[in-house]
Amino acid sequence: MADRAAAGFTLAEVIVALALLSIGVLAVAAAGLSAARLLTGAHRDEFLAATLAGLADSLATGGTPAGGEIDRGRMTVSWSSEVSADSLTLTVQAIAKLKATPDSVSTTIVRVLR
Description:
The protein is an alpha+beta fold. Helices cover 49% and strands 28% of the residues.
């Protein structure tokens, strides 16, 4: 009888091992979901930043821009401009807002006119 008990695991050991294994599997799954969420946010931020950078480049090379709004499919980009009282600087405020989320990114571009 002693040989038979030494050859295997007790029920309590098996239950503890399965509980630890399930906790580990759940932790790995949660880490994977968290990484996917972060990656999605990074892609969104990259898209917004690239769109605002393109807008900044076109406004900087196109003379004095007027305010406006463009629809880029997944987001709306709006901007307004203001020339200083002494006509030396141009300030452009641009805001990009995703349609599906409340997130938005804004940037301010200041350009010396003379």
